[in-house]
Amino acid sequence: MRVLILEDSLALAGALSDYLELRGCAVDLAFHGQAFLDLAKGARFDVYVLDVAVPGIDGLEVCERLRSEMRDETPVIFLTARDTLQDKKVGFARGADDYLVKPFEMEELLLRLQALTARGRRPEVSTQVLGEVMLDHGAGLVVRNGRRIRLHELQWRVLKILAARSPLTVERAVLERELWGDHVPDSDALRTHIYRLRNALTITGERELIETVHGKGWRLVR
């Protein structure tokens, strides 16, 4: 079993690595989100272990990028001190397969990793159904009420980000970072693209799919 761990505590990361390697696992460590993503892009792993509260890109964002951008379906388990039901709901909504709360027993973590890898990767999903809308990732188009909608590239990327987190709200800053990185346009380009996306998705008599959450961002309603 080859394991990639995102954990910013050097002591815990070392303990995890020592324990798993003694039981036959190959372990790679990352101490911040970007380093984890770089390692995940460069090699194939059997399972990912993600802490949430890490420097830079947090574990939730890492998981979402794995699923929505990299189309990486390697099993993911969150290993975190965040223990409320809402925390767990958010983790699973971002693409997690399992969730283990700190403090924990090492043996339990190993058992969970073995169970996840025994199931293997999720089958690659080329379509995503959200209510009356289907996203065809293979063809890069949307189907709504039998109507095939072809979007411009940036509109498609906005929709994929909103769909990955639906029904949660995606903040403006998150969308802008995903679309443009550190080079966000000076004009209100994001609002313009969302306006055009809304028009493309909706015809007369249909409800709006993209809801503005004032002061926060936008969400895709199902």
Description of the structure:
The longest helix is centred in the middle third of the chain and has 14 residues. The relative contact order is 0.10. The strands form 3 sheets. The chain has a 5-stranded parallel sheet, sandwiched between helices. The chain has a 4-stranded antiparallel sheet with strand order 6-7-8-9, with helices on one face. The chain contains 8 helices and 12 strands. The mean pLDDT is 89. Helix 6 packs across helix 8.
Beta-strand content estimate: 15-25%
Number of strands: 12
Largest sheet at a glance? 5 strands, parallel
Structural classification:
alpha/beta
Features:
222 residues, alpha/beta, five-stranded parallel sheet, four-stranded antiparallel sheet, 8 helices, elongated
List the helices and strands and how they pair.
Blueprint: E1 2-6, H1 10-22, E2 26-30, H2 33-42, E3 47-50, H3 59-68, E4 76-80, H4 85-93, E5 98-101, H5 106-119, E6 127-130, E7 133-136, E8 141-144, E9 147-150, H6 153-165, E10 170-171, H7 172-180, H8 189-201, E11 210-213, E12 217-220
Parallel strand pairs: 1-2, 1-3, 3-4, 4-5
Antiparallel strand pairs: 6-7, 7-8, 8-9, 10-12, 11-12
Helix pairs in contact: 2-3, 6-8
Short description:
The protein has 8 helices and 12 strands. The chain is α/β, with parallel strands linked by helices.
